[in-house]
Amino acid sequence: MQSSILKKGQIEIQETVFIIVIVIVLILMGLMFFYRYTLASIETSNTNYEIEKQSDLITALPNMAEFKCSFLNKQEECIDLLKIMAFKDLNSNLFGNKRIVIEIIYPEKNNIECNYGNLDNCNNVIVYSKIPNKYQRKIIVSSPVSIYNINSNEYYMGKLSIEGYYGT
Amino acid sequence: MKKGQSVQFNWIFIVVSGAILLMFFTLFAFRYSVLQNKKINAETARALDRSINSIKTTEAYTNLDLGKVNEIEFNCNEFIINKDYRQKTNNIIFSSNIKSNRIGLWSKSFEYPFKIDNIVFLSSIENKIYLIYDNFNEQFVTEIYNEIPSLFNVKIVNDYDNIRDSVIVFFVDPSGKLDELKSKNNKVVYIDGADVGSVKFYEDSIKESSYLSREMMYGAIFTSNFKLYDCSFKSLLNKMNDVNKIYENKAKNMKECSYLGIVQNLNVNDEVKNCLNNNCLDLINNKEILDLQNQELYEQGCKVVF
Q1: Which ipTM did the prediction report?
Q2: Selected residues 3-32 of chain B with any CB under 8 Å from a CB in chain A
């Protein structure tokens, strides 16, 4: 009789221990999940900020000294085609994981990539290209730009596209 | 199991599991607080980065209220908020390390002679900067003082005996008064020249560098530290070299006129190297030559390079 009461007590203790352990494990898992979620949200906000900066770059880039037209030291509202070509030759790492392309939309030209020899008869320049092997997101932003070819003294209507690669 | 043993076991179990839980919650609270601080620091860094990016689109000045006091440490191409969050930047920033909640930002164009970039000066609003003049350079120092936006705590004086915990910028040789000034926790900078010249930073030892324009001189004033100035100075020279290469390649591929002369002078690799070794004379002279050559092209009816 006495031993069966003791056994019953032992079982109750074991049950209590088991429940407490389960509850602790659940709380631990919950907290771990919450911690990781907060950590991930910081990383996501970093990526979102980089994407926001990409949108700012589309307005900032045509105003950079490396691209902008100038006449007697006065800045003009266009992109200098010869400067774009020269920037391409620099092999700069200025923009991180991005691909920047300028296309000539009007007047219509042959679908050929520009080089110094065919500037009057080409329609696109890959200004910058650094594409990572692995990435999770690719965001493209575009904007119309005015392009000036100093040798032919012509203005073209173009499209500036910036592809950003995130989650590398 | 006896009844006494069961009660004992219960107590041991409660104490051990309680201790483990308490330890875990404490650890979690600590790590969570670290994480929250990181999040706040990241937001602060972005707020500052946004302000820098927006001010540098044009020549302007503004102030930024960060809400609470933050420590901002500057390195060459990054700044660190509260020794925790690093924000990379491609902008050329002249700033000393800041501990404040209110920051003044000022952007100015740097030209050689064509535009290179807008450079950004930062300083805590509370950071006191004194410009010291004498009878010979009062007019020039007053001009400098008037150009610096009034949001910065800059004063122009010729009596500096009672100045403490400040940046003191001399336009006259400060030798002889240094020990006294440094004992009052002041940072001492000596600008030797006008729009071009050399700058000395009186730190543990005297460190010297050069400046090629008034903007670079402002850079020396706002950094008031050799390492920080030198770092931004080198970044600016490298950027200048890159922009020169762009114009050099452009001129090489321009048709109709001969651009050989200007192409030669647009290649400033050697001049930049010399300037990084504290001999900037050729680079300074080259700027004027380039401006003349471009003007001559215009007068000859040719298309100008810049």
Answers
A1: 0.86
A2: 3, 6, 9-10, 13, 17, 20-21, 24, 28, 31-32
